[in-house]
Amino acid sequence: GGAGGMGGAGGAGALTRCCSGRGSCVPASGVLGGRPDLLGRDLCSQDLLCEPDGFRTAGGPQRCIVGQGALARQIPDTAGACVPNCVPLVGGVSNVLAGLGIDPQGGCATAEVCVPCTNPLDGQPTGACRP
Predict the structure, then answer these.
(1) Residues 113, 90 contacting (CB under 8 angstroms)
(2) Which strands sit side by side in the sheet containing 112-116, from one edge to the other?
(3) Contact yes or no for 23/54 (Cβ under 8 A)
(4) Which residues of the chain have a pLDDT value below 50?
(5) Interacting residues of 78 by C-beta distance below 8 A, sequence separation 6+
(6) What is the pLDDT of residue 66?
(7) For tag attachment on the chain, is the N or C end more exposed, with fewer CB atoms within 10 Å?
(8) What's the confidence (pLDDT) of residue 83?
(9) Measured between alpha carbons, how far is 88 from 41 in angstroms, rounded to an integer?
(10) pTM of the model
(11) What angle do CA 55, 43, 61 make, to 5 degrees?
(12) CA dihedral sign, ordered 37, 41, 45, 46
């Protein structure tokens, strides 16, 4: 049985908080979500990235439904994940959804966007959802 704990990685005490208190500054090698290319620095120092807390949990970010059915005609896969707006990719996703007349928040918390698991334009994973 896999006992996947979170401990033992840093050892230097608490991580610096970022993303308005919703994330932690981590080195690219310490990104638990596996996609450091998606993350921005936010308030972190130059060699660190701001990883939202949801990305650092075992199951990944909270799941959501993009568009709650409004998109079903245009986007086959409407599964998504709640990503805080401090993550760089969120701005573009939010603009695309709003342009389609869809509420980008999609049932997520304030200052989060329901990012589709799969990019509807090219069919590639967005990195928002845990594989």
Answers:
(1) yes
(2) 63-65, 79-84, 112-116
(3) no
(4) 1-11
(5) 65, 66, 67, 69, 71, 72, 116
(6) 85
(7) N
(8) 94
(9) 9
(10) 0.78
(11) 10
(12) positive
